[in-house]
Structure formats: C-alpha cells, structure tokens
Amino acid sequence: MPPKRVAIVTSSTRSPRLNPTITQYVYDVLISDPTIPTNHSGTTDTDPRHITLEIIDLEKQSLPLYDESVIPASLPAADPTPHYSKAHTRAWSAVVRQYDAFIFVTPQYNWSIPASLKNALDYLYFEWKGKPAGIVSYGGRGGGKAADHLRGILTGLRMRVVGTAPGLPVKFTGFPVGTLSEEEEKVQLDERDLAGWREAGVEGMMQNLGMELPLLMYVP
Known about the structure:
Elements: E1 4-10, H1 19-31, E2 51-57, H2 87-97, E3 101-107, H3 115-122, E4 132-139, H4 144-156, E5 160-161, E6 167-169, H5 191-199, H6 202-217
Parallel strand pairs: 1-2, 1-3, 3-4, 4-5, 4-6
C-alpha cells in the first residue's frame, strides 16, 4: 500500500498574489520536519504509514464560476466523477479524489476566504466527505476570520478538520503593483515576517498540524 497523499492547496487565483509563496513556505516547513512521517530518504517510498505532500494550485484548475447542473451530494458516493455534467467538474473531481487529506492555505478577504476557494469546494461533495483537513491562513492580522469561515464550510462538507490552525500575520512581505503572473513565484518572504512567525511559534503550530493529519487518516 503506498503512502497517503496530502494536498496543500493554494486557494487564491488573483494576479499578482502571495499565495504560492506562502504555500511553498508551508510545504517547506512540513517537509523538513523529521517528526512528520514523510519520506526523507529521497528513495521510492512504499511505507503505508507515511504521507506524501503535494501542492495544488486552484488557479491551474481553470474552474469557472459554479455552473454544474447536477447536485454533487446526489451522485453515487463511490464514484461520482463520471456523473458530472461538465468536463471541468469531472477533471476537478478526478484531481481531488487522488488525495487522502488536504491543507488549505488561504488569505483573508474581507473577513472571509477567497471566492475561488469557496467555488472550488462547492463543485464537489463526496470527494471531500470524511477526509481530514487542515487550515493555514494569512493576512494583516493572521487571517483568523477566514480560518473560522473555512472551518464551518469544511465541516458542512463533512470533512474532519484538525484543531490546529496556524495564522500568519503578513506585515512586511509584499510585491510591486503590476507584477507579472509568471513572476509571482519569485516573491520573497520578508525576513522580518519569517522571524515574527518563528518567534510566535507559528512553525511549531504547522508541525503540529502536520502530525495531526496522519492520525485522522488512520483512525476510522
């Protein structure tokens, strides 16, 4: 049995954006922690006790504003993918079904989550149901309001949301207005933000989240 797969989701689709940089930071913190059961040897991993971490970017899914004509919760639970009416929904369903758990990395927009994340979640139901989920938010004060809203949405989708939800206050990191989308991955986190997160114990919270997810994946 292969390791469980965990998707770290970049939730904003605007341009320019910090989300890919923040998502990469979350990935780097988790993959570098030797206490989280990922494969650290660089060899092919077949240990079912392990997890693999991968990044999904919602911008690359090209989902239009919700236009699916069928109700996701009314489809066959075991294999809903072929029963959607739209090709983009079937493609998104197939992507999500590959993963056993999710970490949603979201900015805070007006005390809530980006419309792109809510839209992507609404397209599906059984693909989310029962799977563990973690939340990492960021914003001027850490994005706690967005995390609270997202927790309610994920609970409504019957996901198993872990208690630890790190919030990253972004006070110094930014990008020039008009940054080209192909350059957004080059945005560098300001060292003052990184130092502040470490001092506040945010990286430790992320590592706790990374350890909680596998526990839920292996507990019925």
